[in-house]
C-alpha cells in the first residue's frame, strides 16, 4: 500500500492511498486529481525522482498549469533543499509547523 499526498501551510492534507506500484502513471493520476480540487493558484515543489522527470509526467504540466497547479522542480544539485532527503531541514520545518499550526509533517 502506498500514500501520495499534498499538505498546505495550514496543515491540511490531501492524500490518495493506492495499491499499485509507485510509478509515473500513479503520480500523474494523483496530480490530475489534485489539480481539479484546488480553488486558487498552487505551487508544488518536486524533487528529481524518476517519476517527476519522466516524459509522461512532464507532458502533463501544461494541463495542471491551466488549472492553477504550478510544478516547480528543484535543481538537480539541490539535494540539500529536498525535505525528504534532508532530515535536519525537515526537523526544523516540523518544529515551525508544530509551533505555528499545531501540526507535523511526516
Brief descriptors of the model:
single chain; 106 residues; alpha+beta; two-stranded antiparallel ribbon; two-stranded parallel ribbon; 5 helices
Question: Can you lay out the helices and strands and say which pair or pack?
Answer:
Elements: E1 2-7, E2 13-18, H1 24-35, E3 42-46, H2 50-53, H3 55-58, H4 61-66, E4 69-73, H5 87-101
Parallel strand pairs: 3-4
Antiparallel strand pairs: 1-2
Explain this structure.
The structure is a single chain. The protein is globular. Residues 98-106 have low confidence and may be disordered. It has a two-stranded antiparallel ribbon. A two-stranded parallel ribbon has the order 3-4. It has 5 helices and 4 strands, in the order E-E-H-E-H-H-H-E-H. Strand 1 (2-7) and strand 2 form a beta hairpin. It has 106 residues and is α+β, with helices and mostly antiparallel strands.
How many strands?
Answer: 4
Distance between the termini: 17 Å
Helical/strand content category: alpha+beta
Largest beta sheet: what is the strand line-up?
1-2
Mean pLDDT: 78
Given as residue ranges, the uncertain stretches (5+ residues, pLDDT < 50) are 98-106
Summarize it.
With 106 residues, this protein is of the alpha+beta class. Helices cover 39% and strands 21% of the residues.
Amino acid at each position: 500500500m502506498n500514500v501520495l499526498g499534498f499538505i498546505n501551510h495550514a496543515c491540511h492534507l490531501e492524500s490518495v492511498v493506492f495499491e499499485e506500484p509507485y510509478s509515473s502513471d500513479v503520480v500523474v493520476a494523483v496530480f490530475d486529481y489534485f489539480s481539479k480540487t484546488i480553488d486558487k493558484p498552487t505551487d508544488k515543489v518536486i524533487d528529481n525522482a524518476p517519476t517527476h522527470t519522466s516524459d509522461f509526467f512532464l507532458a502533463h504540466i501544461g494541463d495542471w498549469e491551466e488549472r492553477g497547479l504550478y510544478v516547480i522542480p528543484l535543481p538537480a544539485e539541490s539535494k540539500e533543499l529536498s525535505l525528504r532527503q534532508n532530515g535536519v531541514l525537515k526537523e526544523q520545518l516540523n518544529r515551525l509547523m508544530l509551533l505555528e499550526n499545531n501540526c507535523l509533517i511526516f
